[in-house]
Design goal:
This protein has 134 residues and is of the alpha+beta class. The chain has 4 helices and 7 strands; from the N terminus they run H-H-E-E-E-E-E-H-E-E-H. Strands 1-2-5 form a 3-stranded antiparallel β-sheet. A two-stranded antiparallel ribbon has the order 3-4. Helix 1 crosses helix 2. The two termini are 22 Å apart.
């Protein structure tokens, strides 16, 4: 579970490696797909990507909020928000990936002396069995 962010450059590079287009063509393809998604959402259309999820623009009504510091009521204007709903396929894929690993809490002694908890990712028993490790 790396903490890496996927960027346009990563997507373009993946298209370049997997499809075999030139780097410029790969970049243009990724840009045009993202531009088309953004344009459709700007028009208020729903975007559904099979086995991935759907993007939609939701209209929120005007409501009354409260300033937490003063308690004063403040009107919140109506606005549009972007919502993403993952497909069941994507949810299952993410959950199956996460269950392959379990987090094992270990105690280690820091420089100051008291015991501190630290997390370390350890393959689950299921993953160890698949790899032939027991």
């Amino acid at each position: 579970m790396a903490n890496e962010t996927i960027t346009r450059a990563h997507l373009s590079n993946s298209v370049y490696q997997e499809v075999g287009l030139s780097r410029n063509e790969s970049t243009n393809l990724v840009e045009s797909v993202l531009d088309e998604i953004a344009a459709a959402l700007a028009r208020g259309e729903m975007v559904k990507i099979s086995s991935f999820g759907s993007f939609a623009v939701r209209k929120k009504q005007e409501r009354v909020g409260r300033n937490p510091k003063t308690g004063e009521e403040v009107p919140i204007a109506s606005r549009q928000v972007l919502v993403f709903r993952p497909s069941h396929v994507l949810k299952d894929r993410v959950n199956n990936y996460l269950t392959k690993f379990r987090v094992k809490l270990t105690k280690k002694r820091g420089a100051s002396g008291p015991l501190q908890k630290s997390a370390r990712i350890v393959p689950s028993a299921h993953t160890r069995n698949q790899r032939g490790l027991s």
